[in-house]
Design goal:
By secondary structure, the protein is an alpha/beta fold. Helices cover 36% and strands 17% of the residues.
């Protein structure tokens, strides 16, 4: 479907001059792709103003400057660690250029006494003198040489210089056709003063003059292109989804009301609203793609349980997928307590399940006797089959890759998908980032929830934190302490094992220990 005029931009990177077998893999790693197009999308991080200054007196330490002066003297280093010092004079004063461990013959050739040179680099001050260490550019004005008036600065990786990336980007721009039709609305272009696509690329990768407003307009133009391409891609994905055939799961108000009556609390209006949105989605013939976003404690699992009940009443199965075994088993416990008393069959499947227990679960999923299953990555492994999987609910969805979700989706006939996240994302941003997902937000907490205080305390005050835990224990409360690793050879108390031992010793109380290397039953 790609326009033939764009074919040159999708050539491999070694089609550019100067990119050989050694540089190609390094450049691919930097730009995150293999084509010239990927290089063009590797935008500069900033731009340096290299316009010539009028005289040395205008130079300010720590700024990049381009100046012109006559070589007054070249002073050899007085020991191995001292630099070679070149004095430039411009009629107003001196600027010292310093080179450490530079080849003396090369320096004599670059800076003949009495000749003019243009240098560009970072100005510093040392013992009251203005100096420039290892200038970025050294030019001979008699040859018409000048540094670029503005230099794009790129993010780099080992083995690449900024000059190499810049030269490659300029060569890539030459491959952009001049006759590409404009895809942005003309009225928008005129209103914003944006350049065309190729001019926009030139404006960020190879500006010919220092013009901050022009660079900003070029960046805005290309940012709009990116947003437009993303939205078009999502529109195509939505259209493709709506053409897919999913199981229609009829609404089951009586069954949901029966579940509500067993609850010791009343669902929030946000939970009821999200449940109605999901019920409507499940009644469509195309697969649901919805994100349920709500803070910890907002009741996302209950909404997922409502959806699972609707599926079970329609004769279908639901899979809850969690990123870790602890979360999967916690989810199973919650669902089991909610739904088993009402006659629904709930099970769990993780990588730890072996032998007869695993076989029994696999058989129950295959023959449909298990209606709801919670699990980890084990759910989408080979050998796991479902009789009528109609819905997949993914908890902490950012912990799973797209490929993981797709593997589980392949276990059924275009299953409906609900992803749950505790990460607070504004609705418009969620729709931008996740594109094809409709969004339901739980913006209320169930009645009686205690407010959560969040504080940041420097690790130098660790004793204050331990003291606060001790006071909480004296009040009859409990505490948990999350550590970044299970164990460590270093005696820094940051691992779970060492922290538990230290707390037990300091507080003189029983301290439990839980981590992923323990046996399942523990």
């Amino acid at each position: 479907m790609r326009d033939e005029r764009l074919f040159p931009l999708f050539q491999p990177l070694d089609a550019l001059p100067g990119i050989g077998p050694k540089l190609k893999p390094v450049l691919e790693r930097l730009v995150g792709g293999e084509t010239i197009w990927d290089l063009l999308l590797h935008m500069p991080e900033r731009w340096l103003d290299r316009r010539p200054r009028d005289n040395f007196e205008d130079l300010i330490p720590d700024e990049i400057a381009t100046v012109r002066g006559e070589v007054h003297a070249v002073k050899a280093p007085y020991n191995d660690r001292a630099p070679t010092r070149i004095l430039l004079f411009d009629g107003t004063g001196f600027l010292t250029l310093t080179y450490f461990r530079a080849d003396s013959r090369w320096l004599q050739g670059q800076f003949p006494v009495g000749k003019e040179r243009i240098v560009s680099g970072k100005v510093s001050e040392w013992q009251g003198e203005r100096q420039m260490s290892h200038p970025d550019f050294v030019m001979d004005p008699s040859r018409g040489e000048m540094p670029p008036p503005v230099e794009p600065i790129y993010g780099l990786t080992a083995g690449l210089t900024n000059k190499r990336v810049h030269q490659s980007a300029k060569a890539a721009i030459d491959l952009i056709p001049d006759d590409l039709p404009e895809w942005v609305d003309p009225d928008l272009l005129n209103r914003e003063g944006w350049p065309g696509f190729k001019s926009g690329m030139q404006g960020v990768h190879a500006p010919t003059a220092w013009d901050e407003e022009a660079i900003a307009r070029a960046r805005q133009r290309l940012a709009y292109d990116e947003a437009l391409a993303r939205e078009l891609t999502f529109s195509r994905a939505r259209a493709a989804r709506r053409s897919g055939e999913a199981n229609i799961v009829p609404a089951q108000s009586d069954a949901l009301n029966a579940l509500v009556k067993t609850l010791p609390y009343t669902p929030t209006q946000a939970q009821i609203r999200a449940t109605k949105e999901i019920m409507a989605d499940l009644g469509e013939s195309f697969p649901m793609r919805r994100m349920l976003q709500g803070d910890v404690g907002a009741g996302k699992t209950l909404v997922g349980a409502f959806a699972a009940v609707q599926a079970a009443e329609g004769g279908f199965q639901t899979a809850f997928m969690a990123p870790t075994e602890v979360l999967a088993r916690q989810q199973f416990d919650t669902l089991d307590q909610l739904l088993s008393p009402l006659g629904y069959t709930v099970s769990v499947l993780t990588g730890r399940d072996k032998g007869k227990a695993r076989e029994s679960t696999l058989m129950g999923l295959a023959d449909g006797s298990i209606q709801i299953v919670a699990g980890t990555h084990a759910l989408f492994q080979e050998g796991v089959t479902f009789q009528r999987l109609a819905m997949v609910i993914v908890d902490e969805q950012h912990r799973f890759g797209v490929a993981d979700r797709m593997k589980l989706m392949s276990k059924g006939k275009s299953p409906h998908m609900l992803v749950m996240s505790a990460t607070p994302i504004p609705r418009t941003l969620a729709q931008t980032v996740h594109g094809d997902l409709d969004v339901s937000i739980l913006d209320e907490k169930p009645a009686g929830r205690q407010p959560v205080e969040t504080r940041v305390i420097a690790d130098t005050r660790i004793e204050d934190v331990i003291g606060a835990v001790g006071r909480a224990l004296e009040r009859g409360e409990r505490a948990f302490w999350v550590c970044p690793r299970v164990d460590t050879d270093e005696d820094d108390n940051s691992s779970a094992v060492s922290r538990a031992a230290m707390l037990k010793d300091v507080l003189g109380t029983n301290v439990g220990l839980v981590h992923g290397r323990m046996k399942g039953e523990d």
